Amino acid sequence: MTTAFVLSGGANLGAIQVGMLRALAERSIEPDLLVGTSVGALNAAFLAGRGFRPDVVDELGDIWRGLHTWQLFPPNPKHIVGALIGHENAIFGDHGLRALNEKHLNFDRIEDARIPLTVVATDLLTGNEVDIDSGPTIEAILASAAIPGLLPPVDREGRLLIDGGVADNAAISSAMTRKADTIYVLPCGYPCAANKPPTGVASTLIHTMTLLVHKRLVRDIREYTGQANLVVVPPPCPLDVGAMDFSRADELIRRGYSTASAFLDIDAGRRNEPANHIDMHIH
Question: To the nearest whole number, what is the mean pLDDT of the chain?
């Protein structure tokens, strides 16, 4: 039996996955392989390099608690103006995200990970999913997390790659291709309790991506139900966190843990219709 953890994208909501992972670790549920998209790739890579243990998950949580928006999206007026007039391909540079990865990842190439890792990106030209399981780790994560318009695409072997959520936000198919029998899907959710639309270019782009990729995730879960043993861990609900707000990581971790624990304590999280409890809704 092969168990996979599939970690979706979700920008600042990626803190929720830390709580989910803590609940899984406490129940001695361990991955034989990890598949990560966008911020899920960053979380998955941290685990892949250190192994899956409660103390490693707690260390990841400490990193999340120390993040702030401008650390990952550092403002640079020249860069922003360049993007607006067509001289740059993104509003922000990726040096903030690169520095975060350089500080915390402990393996240089994906194939050297302690737990097998697949990072999901999207080919900017074709829109096709690109599964990366070899090569430089940081470049793969930067590609997977390159939100279109906000962060620059990454050139890998002559192809420009962007956020994996465009093609496949939670790559269940990648886990199945790698012969996983049991697949734990860890979605970040979306701000289902937001009472007004986002303002600003960056917030609007992230919010829009979050909605689109969650809809795709629900559809994919329904498609693959019955083809593998899917355990879809629900994110906490309701959620009202703004798209660029990294200040509530501790709250999201605690709520992610509480929701996941309650869910896993009933039939180990197995449900006949696993997509139903994460379907799109508003409050």
Answer: 92
pTM assigned to the model: 0.95
Neighbour count for residue 251 (Cβ, 10 Å) = 14
Backbone torsion region of residue 56, taken as left when φ is above 0, otherwise alpha when ψ lies between -120 and 50, otherwise beta: alpha
Q: Give the ranges where 107-239 is alpha helix by DSSP (H).
A: 137-144, 172-177, 201-224
Q: Quote the CA–CA distance of 234 and 189 in Å, as a whole number.
A: 8
Q: E strand or H helix at 249, and its extent?
A: helix 249-264
CA atoms within 13 A on the CB side of 96: 17
Catalytic residues: 38, 163
Q: What tokens were used for 25?
A: 């670790």
**Is residue 184 within 8 Å of 4, Cβ to Cβ?**
yes
Burial 39-77 (b: 16+ CB within 10 A, else e): bbbbbbbbbbbbebeeebbeebbebbeebebeebbeeee
CB atoms within 10 A of CB 81: 12
Rounded to an integer, what distance in angstroms lies between the CA atom of residue 180 and that of residue 172?
Answer: 9
Inform me whether the pLDDT recorded for 22 exceeds 60.
yes
For residue 78, the model assigns a pLDDT of 65
Q: In DSSP terms, which residues pair with 35 in a beta bridge?
A: 6, 118
